[in-house]
């Protein structure tokens, strides 16, 4: 005889299937895996989530394939544990889905985390925020890169894209030195890149404005503005304003470079961080031009190196880039200011 109360008892298998599940996409070089597994296990249990699924990135796949597999297996949140390149790759794969991206800063720059003012170097806090925090929508940069053979590659970026000195600096960065001393390794790379006197011959179009031509050492397109060492390259950039901020560096000698350093390090890095200080910002100088818009198209006279979020992406003869407003969902602490 059937016990009538049996139908009222919860089905443990059904309950397990209804639990939300997170996935961790991690760069094995960047993380302490045993420590990470222990903290994730504790936080998922405390938050009432199901068993987390794990994916390790490889040299051939920095995160897109793993993220797609995690989504296919029903992950409701992707925790990305790696550097800026891993974050970019995971964001590219997750953006078309209503799934949250949680950051465990684990690289040299951690630029998206810095711009979102998230805690760095605190494993427990980052994972706790992932499971107990709230969602924040931010913009996503999209770019089409035209190669010399007219092939076009399409990618996403969350922080910045750059051509010229910026990309050459990355090409000259010693990975072993970077692993030992972090962002200071870029100092040597900058010195090497500065010896390259070649300028970019650029034609560009911003939104519906007319096409313009100029020569520049560097073009940087940003979704957000802060770099390592508290350097604020793009002082008016915001991750959720629906706009791209672009800077054109056009130094012609020592005085021009001094103007650029003064503007970026002193005015952007110090004065711009307070309402009172912003009153003392000077006008733009010829060596450093800022523009802002939703869409930006650029061609160069010869193939030039390009970087996305700190990773080299080969050479380009042209780009088309735009912003997808509030396309990416990022987990932030519940006490975080949006």
From TrEMBL:
Q: Identify its protein family.
A: Belongs to the diacylglycerol/lipid kinase family.
Where does the record place the DAGKc domain?
17-147
Q: Kindly provide the name given to this protein in its UniProt entry.
A: Diacylglycerol kinase family protein
Provide an example Pfam family for this protein. Answer: DAGK_cat
UniProt-recorded Gene Ontology molecular function terms? kinase activity
**Keyword annotations for this protein?**
ATP-binding, Kinase, Lipid biosynthesis, Lipid metabolism, Nucleotide-binding, Phospholipid biosynthesis, Phospholipid metabolism, Transferase
SUPFAM superfamilies, sorted: NAD kinase/diacylglycerol kinase-like
Q: Gene3D superfamilies annotated for this entry?
A: 2.60.200.40, Probable inorganic polyphosphate/atp-NAD kinase, domain 1 (3.40.50.10330)
At the top level, the lineage of the source is Bacteria
Source organism (scientific name): Microbacterium psychrotolerans
Which InterPro entries does this UniProt record tie to the protein? Answer: ATP-NAD_kinase_N, Diacylglycerol_kinase_cat_dom, Lipid_Phosphate_FormReg, NAD/diacylglycerol_kinase_sf, YegS/DAGK_C
Q: Which PANTHER family match?
A: LIPID KINASE YEGS, SPHINGOSINE KINASE
Q: Which cofactors, if any, are listed as required? A: Mg(2+)
Task: Give a yes or no for keyword ATP-binding in this entry.
Answer: yes
